[in-house]
Amino acid sequence: MRNRPLVLTTESARHPFRQRLPAHVLRLMPEGAGRRKRPVDDDSDWKLFALSFCAFFWAFYGFIF
Q1: Model pTM?
Q2: CA distance 58 to 31
Q3: pLDDT digits over 34-59, tens only?
Q4: Whether 37 contacts 46, CB under 8 Å
Q5: Distance CA 9, CA 26 (A)
Q6: DSSP characters for 1-65?
Q7: Rounded to an integer, what distance in angstroms lies between the CA atom of residue 49 and that of residue 51?
Q8: Cα–Cα–Cα angle for 53, 59, 63, nearest 5°?
């Protein structure tokens, strides 16, 4: 029988880096716990389009005049 020294690692983690992490890091959280819902931002596509259009317009306008 082998005598093993006291190990402060997680034996279920197979990678050496994961073995050195504390146990609470590897613990799985229940679905939806600790997550906050972000407000829905539906107009981001229009904002990006308007910004790109204006940037192209000013760059083109600057090259002409």
Answers
A1: 0.37
A2: 48
A3: 667 777 777 788 999 999 999 999 99
A4: no
A5: 11
A6: -PPPPP--S-TT--SHHHHHS-HHHHSPPPTTTT--PPPP-TTHHHHHHHHHHHHHHHHHHHHH-
A7: 5
A8: 140
